[in-house]
Amino acid sequence: MNNRARRVKRIDLALQGGGAHGAFTWGVLDRLLEDERIEIDAVSGTSAGAMNAVVLADGLAAGGRKQAREALLRFWSRVSRAAAGGGPLTALFGDWAPEGSPLAWYAEWLARTFAPYQFNPLDINPLRDILAQEVDFERVHACDQPRLFVSATHVRTGQLREFRQHEMSVDVVLASACLPMLFKAVEIDGEAYWDGAYVGNPSLLPLIAESPAHDLVLVQINPSCREAVPTTAPEILDRLQEITFNSSLVKELRSIALLKQLLKEEGLPRSAGGRPSLFAQIDALKLHRIDAEAELASLGAASKLSAAWSFITRLHRIGRAAADAWLARDFTHLGRRSTLRLSDFLP
Questions:
Q1: In sequence order, which ranges of the chain are alpha helices (DSSP H)?
Q2: Which pLDDT score is estimated for 214?
Q3: b/e per residue, 299-327, with b = 16+ CB within 10 A?
């Protein structure tokens, strides 16, 4: 085994959704791809995290790290250009309605009064064309690393649906990012799906159960904590949205923390052999997190609908800086211990 093989650390990535704030995750991925000591075994993504995940996987399959970095740059550039071009994406991701402005209040009233079945009957979503043109889904199906998982919410039952590599398509990614007040539910095999962030943002279980890597790195967009209590209607709604989109993640982390505590106290149950049990996978799991709580919390929820290139590149820089700081601080701990404090999630 050569020196490089000895120092390579294999990780899984869990990518949160958060609209245009997904450009933060682009910055994180851009920095991680630069570091050849890191190898990505599997990725679980929701909403914008799902878009980053499929673009990443396709780029790696097409030509490795350099191609993946170029693919992510191209994707976010196209999203920003489409938002600035006066087309339908301007209404979704443009800078036409600053937070607190009368136009923003009108847009919020419109979204709460009319469903997309009335104001967008043709279900126009320019992200469909961007994904179709930028991602070769046949190539994604054929690649075996990284493994890929994308989450969506099954509308009829409210259950989490985790789509796997061979199921990836434009519809699957759009389903994972389908905010029901903006777009019609996405139908896949006769079933309707909404944004996966409602029930899995992102889903950690497939990474734990199906990936050989034992270091799971969460790239978190939605702030966990805010010091000030919101007092205005927009602030309250923003915080409710953050809590909602973090709730499934908090529950999953709490379950992992409780199981790891139980395994520490009681020991591993006896295995029947063969593939490691889920208990063994959880016991071996090391959790880590890359975030930028202070910077992202200061932006406000309305900025998730801003795709101005200056803003997107600012988020990219914040993401790169957060990943760089994480590598400097925590790389040596990979394979040894968790750097995310699971005790924080225990009751």
A1: 3-7, 22-34, 48-63, 65-84, 88-93, 102-113, 116-119, 126-134, 137-142, 170-176, 205-210, 233-266, 278-284, 293-297, 309-330
A2: 95
A3: bebbbbbbbbeebbbbbbebbbebbbebb
pLDDT in tens, 4-61: 556 899 999 999 998 889 999 999 999 999 999 999 999 999 999 999 999 999 999 9
Please state whether the peptide bond connecting residue 202 to the residue before it is cis, i.e. omega within 30 degrees of 0.
Answer: yes
pTM: 0.88
Q: How far apart are CA 179 and CA 233, in angstroms?
A: 21
Question: Could you write out the DSSP letters of every residue in 83-135?
Answer: HHTTSHHHHHHSSSS-TTSHHHHHHHHHHHHS-HHHH-TT---HHHHHHHHH-
